[in-house]
Each structure stands twice: as structure tokens, then as C-alpha cells.
User: What shape does this take?
Amino acid sequence: MTTYSKKTLVAVLTAATVAASLTGFAGVAGASSDAPRAGTGAAAGILPARAGQPAPVLDWQPCEKPGGPAGQECATLSVPLDHADPTGPRIEVAVSRIRAARLAGATRAPLGTLLVIPGGPGGSGVQRLTQKGDRLRATLGDAYDLVAMDPRGVGGSTTASCGLDPEDRRLLTLRSWPGPGGEVAENHARSRRTAEACARNGGAVLRSFTTANQVRDLDLLRAALGEERISAWGVSYGAYVAAVYAQEFPHRTDRWVLDSVGDPDPERLARGWLANMARGAEDRFPDFAAWAAHPDRDREGLRLAERPERVRPLVPALAAELDERPRPSDVPGIPLTGNGLRQALQNALYADAAFPAFARLVREARDPGATPALPPEPAGPMSDQAAAVMIGVICNDVTWPTGSVAGFRRAVAADRAAFPLTGGMPVNVTPCAFWKDRPEREPVRITDRGPGGILLVNSRRDPATPLAGALRMRAALGDRARTLVVEHGGHGMYLGNGNACGDRAVTAYLSSGRLPARDGVCPD
Assistant: This one.
């Protein structure tokens, strides 16, 4: 049996952190560490557990990080490269845990294990556990062991490479922002070039980067932990992963939280999530406009206009100016372009805490005497491995429509007119249009068949997963689920960008297991 380790396949990812994946779902598309880092319908079937297959063994080792949770441990889980061939080649996924204190004589935490499932595709579960572990422990006490996994392709797990040039793996190019005036010819050529490089260099490992395999890997992790049933908190794309797990392994789920939820319709997976970003930006921008026009910004030197309605046209107009005349930035050789400004806005809309940096960028871009300071995301390329998983999952999961340059130009023009903040990017061509491999299975259809215990939480004005998508997930799940709408803007509600009411409601559910009797709203 061949085992592909992360060291023999590619080097561990370098530190290349981005605010969102290709589809706009929040996540970390690359991370480094000196320690182990840690879509199929029922008919088509994610493969069930094989009878007689022993549960994998985890060798936990300390991996505390400076400033991170005390007692964090890491291990490596061996999983089949192809779950249809469990005795064939294997790869590794990095996992991590923060173990709850045990009562005398107890062999497990009082409520078992809570899986922390990251966003993305491309988010690191191990990194997210490091970031959120102390807050979860302070909120939930020692009720759960907290466990997370780096999906295959991410962080300390086995990775793949497409062999892309640095310019082709910047977020601004991977996301196919159209050129000035909505031109798409360069996007079309780059998308084809990227898909061909991935087909040439990615191999079987890249082809294995799918939601279905992440779900199956999570179930092997559950078995390795010795848990019959497990609880989960999935955020953004991680919420979709959690929904698929609950559909395919309903007898294995306990308390299930889907935070910032995308549309589960199999006809709209991935490309629909991307298209929804246009609507999400329009929903969310008024929050930034109100903040940027508030008199308090005068004291901070960040006020952009006297009234919110004057902020609204300012940003698209500035982006159009930068399309024609990019400004030199603080990063040598990389100017601030219109698309750089648009991408910075997308990142800023995820959290109110990001508003000041974006307002400062706008003021610098409007000041002829200033040198705009680029945010990290639009500036530099991500690692080749991070780009591979970011592209691979969405292209492997579903078939994307192909199209001509003229066809994409028309789609972009219509979208730019309807949603000027996103400049036509959400409907532009991607490498998936030229992907060489067909999906191995049809995507899961989320249904109301199965036990309940699923709580959805979403902001009213989410820039990446608009509330309409969460409500479609709620309708698909039927009486299995309840929805909590947080009257706030941003992405990632629980212990993040939500509010105290939402945090209390989710904590109460995870602590008691009692799903609310009806859908609810948390006022801001």
C-alpha cells in the first residue's frame, strides 16, 4: 500500500492568508506550521463505512502555539485517496483537538466532541481551532472536546499543485475580475491556462479534492475519536459540508450548527454561491456607507461623505478611475487598480472591524499626495498549493457551463449594470469552465428526511452567503431545522461578527441540545 505524505507530495503551504475563497465563502486558503497541522446524493451515495475496517488510530502530540489555546494537540489521520478503494493509496489529513477536563472516572467529555468545520474551500480547521479554541472553551466550558481537521489540500494535510505562475495565483486573478470596461478576453485565456495546468500537474490528489471526500474523511475522524455521534459547528462553506454530512450520515449527528449558510440547490452549487456575492455586496454596503458618513469618522480622519447616500456612488466611481489610471502603491511593482479596490471592499464587508482599513484605503486613493497601502490579499500571490485546493473543490464538485468570450462579455455587462460594486466578477468565466475531469458523483440534495437538531444562524446582510440562500437551506431541511436571523451585517456569526443575542442562542443550543420551537430573530 502506498502512502503519500505531505512532505513527499509537495512542501507544506507557505503563509498565504486570504479573506475568502474563489466562491466568496470565508476561509484561510493557506497556512504554515512547524508541527502537524491540523456531493453525492443518497442514491449515488457517499460510500458507507466498510464493515470490518478497523477505525484509524490517532497519535496525539502537543502543538500549542504562542498565544493559542493551552493544551492543543495535533495528530495525523490516514485516509484513502479514493474511498471506493480503501486498501489502495492513502493520504494524510492533519487534525487537532483541545481536550476537555475529565470528571473522575470519565472516559469522554460530558457532551462528547464538537467538530469545528472551517470555511473555504481552502480554510484550515486546525488554524481555526487555534483562533477560536479559547473563546469556545470560555463559552462552552468543558462540555466538549473541540476537534478540527485540515481538509485534504490544506495546511498540514496532503496537498497538490497546479504549477501556476505567481501572477495566475493572486486572488485578483483567480477570482476573474473583468478588465476595464468589463473586458473578459484575458480572464478567458487565464482560466483556460489555469485549468490546463491543473490537469497537467494536479494528478489523482487534486482530483480527490471534493466535498464528498471531505465529508467521508470527517466520518473517519469521528470513528477514530471513538464517537458514535458527534456535534458540529460549520461556518460558511463549512456549513455546507456539515449539511452534506447530516444528509449522508444522519445517524451520526448530534447537535448541529450551520453558520452563514449557502444555497444548497444542486443546480446552483459553487457558481450560484459566486453569483450570490453580487447581491450580498449590495445588501451589506449600506452598513459601511452609514459608518463612513457618521460624524465620529471626522475625529478618526476617515469620514468619506456627509451622508450615506453620497458614499454609495463614490466607491464605484473611484474604482472606475483606478481602472483607467492605477495608482502606485506601497508594494513595489503592484499598483492599486480598480479591481484591487473592489476586492478590498469585498474583504471589508465581512466584518465591521474591517471598515476603518477600507475607508483609509479610499481616502489614500483619492489623495494625489498619498501612497495607498495595499491590503495583503490583493497584493501578493498565494501559494500554488492554496490556489490548487481553492480551485479544485468547486471545479471537481459540479460541472460548470462553458461559454465563448462574447457570451461571458454579455453576462458581465448585465451584472455590472445591476450590481456595480462587484464589477461583473461573480458571473465571469472561471477555470471550471475548462476543467478536464467530470465530477465523479452528482451533488447531494439536502432534504427533510432524517433527524432534527440542526440550527441555522445567518446575518440579515451577509456579503458572501445572503440570507436568501440560508432560507433555501431551511426550506430544504424542513422540520429538521430552525433558523436564527441576526439583525446585523457581516459573515460568520457565532463568536465572530454577530451579536450577543445570537451567541447566547447558539451556546444555549449546544449546551442543552434543545432546538428552538420556532424560527427566531436576534435584534441588533
Notes: The mean pLDDT is 89. The first strand starts at residue 61 and ends at 62. Strands lie at 61-62, 72-80, 90-98, 113-117, 145-149, 230-235, 253-259, 454-461, 481-489, 520-522. The radius of gyration is 22 Å.
